[in-house]
Amino acid sequence: MIRAVYPGSFDPATFGHLDIIRRSSTLVDELIVGVLNNNAKSPLFSVEERVRMLEEVTENIPKVKIVPFEGLLVEFARKMDARMVIRGLRAITDFEYELQMAQTNHKMEPNIETAFLTTSLEYSYLSSSTVKEVAAFGGDISQFVPEIVIEKIQEKMIKRRV
Ligand code: ADP
Q1: Backbone angles phi, psi at 78, to 5 degrees
Q2: Looking at ligand 1, which atom is closest to the CA of residue 94?
């Protein structure tokens, strides 16, 4: 039984994240999407909101479970009884940080391996921060995120303006 954890901030989830979730879920028996609760990053959405959005957008993808976490990823993976961590690689700029994280995690917990999926070309430019920036200026984000995420971002932006 292969259980993997795909951790991230998902603030908010984009088509790039969904692509990694869809593809990695076909490689494992269970995929736990770990939603990081890290207030130091001042997220736009609370961890509960991010979990709920991910649950909605992944409801038709089998074997996927959304679980919030805080603290060390290796501890979360251990708690979930997962030996594999999935991360996405977009460009060379992701590589250095991801390599460092993977090696640190492996040092802390040699039983846990990180596997990387390269981004699908059509999403290689896509990040949650770009989506938030475009949305803040009233731009069209329908090519970047699912419908439900568009609605939630718009609600947030309206609340921030009043
Ligand atoms: P973090 O704050 O951990 O970087 P993110 O939510 O930004 O969290 O990303 C989670 C994971 O998804 C990371 O491994 C990141 O490289 C990957 N990812 C983000 N956007 C894309 C994309 N467009 N294509 C492929 N992987 C992506």
Answers
A1: -60, -45
A2: 16
Structure tokens at 7: 């951790």
Ligand 1 site residues (CB inside 6 A) read 8-10, 14, 16-17, 20, 87-88, 90, 94, 119, 123, 126-128
Q: Which two tokens stand for residue 71?
A: 């603290």
Query: Residue 146: is the preceding peptide bond cis (ω within 30°)?
Result: no
For the stretch 74-133, pLDDT in tens is 999 999 999 999 999 998 888 999 999 999 999 999 999 999 999 999 999 999 999 999
CATH 2.70.40.10 fits 3-124, yes or no: no
CA distance 150 to 138: 11
